[in-house]
Specification:
By secondary structure, the chain is an alpha/beta fold. The protein is built from 10 helices and 4 strands, in the order βαβαααααβαβααα. It is 53% helix and 7% strand. A 4-stranded parallel beta sheet has the order 2-1-3-4. It is globular, with a radius of gyration of 16 Å.
Length: 187
């Protein structure tokens, strides 16, 4: 069976990587789900603001885990570049607050026909315009749970940590109830 690839954008990576290790390039479940980033995420993590806020991203364990990317043919690379140019033109015309890396994630996902995990609302709105499949971080956590890759205690610990550090994904309560069928646990 072929791997079921899922891309993880910057905010989702930062929210999950310290608690679920290794996060990337590790198959789980009958569908052989495997999470990936794009190479540009590593460049984005070199941003001084992000590096100061999340110094752990420079630790060897995380750097090593971020060395694996989806395999691309030459034709796919060209197609991703063309798609990015089209998406980025749209972003500039509409004055959306989406970054170039976010637009690249959407271009990769469209070309590879795979979903992107993000909680970024601007990126989600842009993805809808281009009919790109997006899932919130909680949805990928549900996939991991259903595959017995993580348990509900891990998920609730993560959610409580996000709330503690005031880095809650948009629609946290609503998505938690929709995805897990119960109310958000008390903090």
């Amino acid at each position: 069976m072929a791997q079921s690839k899922i891309l993880v954008d910057t905010n989702a990576y930062i929210r999950m990587a310290r608690s679920i290790r290794p996060l990337l390039f590790c198959e789980f479940g009958l569908n052989q789900y495997c999470l990936y980033i794009i190479p540009e995420l590593n460049q984005e993590l070199q941003n001084r603001r992000l590096a100061n806020k999340f110094p752990w991203v420079d630790e060897a364990e995380y750097i090593d885990n971020r060395k694996h990317f989806p395999s691309l043919s030459r034709k796919q690379k060209i197609s991703i570049g063309n798609m990015f140019d089209f998406i980025w033109s749209y972003v500039k015309e509409t004055l959306m607050g989406t970054s170039k890396v976010d637009a690249l994630y959407i271009a990769y996902a469209i070309e590879l026909n795979i979903p992107v995990v993000t909680d970024d609302q601007e990126m989600t709105n842009l993805a809808k315009v281009f009919d790109c499949e997006i899932m919130p971080t909680l949805q990928v956590l549900r996939i991991m749970f259903d595959a017995n890759h993580i348990d509900m205690n891990k998920i609730d610990s993560l959610v409580n940590y996000w709330r503690y550090i005031q880095d809650e994904p948009a629609n946290l309560s609503k998505d938690y109830k929709r995805i897990f069928g119960k109310k958000l646990p008390p903090n």
